[in-house]
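HOLO CASE FILE
Compound: fe (ii) ion
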Amino acid sequence: MTQSKTTKTFLNQQVANYGLFYTKLHQFHWYVKGHNFFTLHEKFEELYDQVTLILDDIAERLLQNNGQPYSTLQEFLEHATLKERPYTKAMTEDEMVQTVIDDLVTLRDELVEGIKLTDEEGDDVTNDMLIAAKSKLDKELWFFSSFLGKDQVPQTNAD
Ligand SMILES: [Fe+2]
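Model generated. Tokens follow.
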């Protein structure tokens, strides 16, 4: 099948997002301090391991459709919707977890858009890949929200 330009642009924006998120999670993995150090240090690592798998799947799906995934840090920064910042000011454990929740919500909501888009275009394989990614992120979102004693942030857009 021929993948639309809109789907390719969407997928590439996600390549940028997951590329950035991968590094950002390392920042938290390295700098986290406090009573939950052992838990969070390990949990952030688990999440960046998941993120790198999703990044790779999306980039390779683009290549299978003659797309050109971004492959430099500069491109990731230019095209990501997530934001990062240098670690110049200490963050509490809870601030880090809240940042991860906020980013997961952004990623999840963008995946829902991509799921709709690929469904409309009959791009079943990409659709399936995005649903699998969403299933992983939903679970992570539940983990991190529960850590803070919070309910899940509801989806603003439908599955
Ligand atoms: Fe490590």
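CASE NOTES: DSSP finds five helices and no strands in the chain. The two ends are 24 Å apart (CA to CA).
CLOSED: yes
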